[in-house]
Amino acid sequence: MSLFFTLLMSIGYVLTLEREVDLTCTNFTTDELGYVYLICPDHIEKLDVNGNVMFRSSDLGLGDIFLADATNPLKPFVYYRDQNIIVSFDNTLSSQGNVIDLKVSDFGQIELVGASRDNSYWLWNTAGNELIRVNKDLERINTTPNLGVLTGMSIAPIQIIETATSVYLVDPKNGILEFDVFGTYRRLIPITFRHQIQVSGELIFYLSDAGNELHVLSISLVGEDIITLPSTPTGHVEYRGGRMFYVSGKKLQVYKVDSLRD
């Protein structure tokens, strides 16, 4: 595919392929500044806007990385689920010994972690079907009730996302459970999707079951756009500052997105 390939969409978007980056690790995330973090089994790499490696974390010998979260670009972290350990970094991917061992806590069976404000974390306790917010010293700040009892659903989340006003527990089978920032349950957004989602401003981005359509849904649920993608992503899609990122095959593809409605 040509680097300058442009796809004109009938729904009112132009996607221009800006670059492709050959990958050895095909899982990734981005931060609000547009940097890309490649998630390899034993380390992460931070790429600049041209796809060059800026920084690489050390192999800490803790097994495979389950997830990486760059919600706070100054303090990204990784979660080793098998060891129940969180390791946070600075913006150069230096850990500086910032290790949180969840095994010393009494929070139950933690299987998912998400970033929260003020250097805190949201934890998903599978056994208790509850979200728990803790600070860096593992002091409990907020806890939801048992969400299985509250909602009547069997919940199996794959993401926890906090924004300025809300917390989202992302479950591909049931939809997106929305809470306020204190953990009070608000509603279920009943959509189904593939892979992880993204919440940016007042929009939710998610892949359709078909796998090659990116849905852009307003949080108020009053409007939705669909962007047909030039190729089928291997995993999720992320949108940052007018650019769309996803992996197809073993290449990270970066598209500039222009709306014909502007």
| Main sheet makeup | 5 strands, antiparallel
| CA-based shape | globular
Question: Poorly predicted ranges (pLDDT <50, ≥5 residues)?
Answer: 1-10
Distance between the termini: 28 Å
Number of helices: 1
* Strands side by side in the biggest sheet: 1-2-25-24-23
Spell out the helices and strands N to C: EEEEEEEEEEEEEEHEEEEEEEEEEE
The helix fraction, in percent, is under 10%
Please state roughly what percent of the residues sit in beta strands, choosing from under 5%, 5-15%, 15-25%, 25-35%, 35-45% or over 45%. Answer: over 45%
The total strand number stands at 25
Rg from C-alpha positions?
18 Å
How would you classify the helix and strand content by structural class? mainly beta
Can you describe what's shown?
The two termini are 28 Å apart. With 262 residues, this protein is mainly β. Strand 17 and strand 18 (185-189) form a beta hairpin. The protein is 2% helix and 48% strand. Residues 1-10 have low confidence and may be disordered. The chain is globular. A five-stranded antiparallel beta sheet has the order 1-2-25-24-23, with no helix packed on it. Strands 3-4-5-6 form a four-stranded antiparallel beta sheet, with no helix packed on it.
